[in-house]
Design a protein that fits this description.
Distance between the termini: 177 Å
Oligomer: single chain
Shape: rod-shaped
Largest sheet: none
Helix content: over 70%
Strand content: under 5%
Length: 163
């Protein structure tokens, strides 16, 4: 058992800073509050040993973690780029199909407009012919009424013979 009067005596013996001593004591669950009761040789050895994740080791561990994260992110980015490329291909294919459908629909619309135009022309021609026919019929009726008014009443065949 090693006994120390103050924490400063312990620090001089171990040749470490106060912060380092408290950090190591916290990690190994060593109480520095009551040094007069003494510290075992094992506890002093633990306080002398550097922490395992200190300094360069910690930086190395952090660098490795970041390398892994960068690698994961690179994989995610590659996957996303692949997905974007496939989505773009599907979009282009769909757009091409829609353009073809639009062309077909526009052609059919043009045909329908031509048919409507022809239908209207036929209807107009029919109306004109009907108007001419009605006019001719009216003329015929007028001629009939004029001729029947000027003619003598008709006599039958036998009545003309036996007059």
């Amino acid at each position: 058992m090693n006994k120390f009067d103050t924490v400063d005596d312990l620090l001089k013996e171990l040749n470490i800073s106060r912060a380092t001593a408290y950090r190591r004591a916290r990690k190994y669950d060593i109480s520095l509050a009551n040094l007069s009761s003494g510290l075992s040789d094992d506890e002093i050895e633990k306080l002398k040993q550097p922490l395992q994740n200190s300094g360069k080791q910690k930086l190395s561990d952090d660098a490795e973690k970041y390398r892994l994260k960068v690698s994961e992110m690179s994989d995610i980015i590659k996957n996303l780029e692949t997905e974007i490329a496939s989505q773009k291909e599907r979009y282009d294919e769909e757009r091409k199909r829609n353009d073809e459908r639009e062309t077909i629909l526009l052609d059919k619309l043009g045909e329908a407009q031509n048919l409507v135009s022809q239908s209207q022309q036929l209807q107009l021609m029919t109306e004109n012919k009907l108007a001419k026919a009605e006019e001719e019929l009216a003329n015929i009726k007028m001629i009939e009424t004029e001729t029947s008014a000027t003619e003598a009443p008709k006599q039958g065949f036998w009545s003309k013979l036996f007059k």
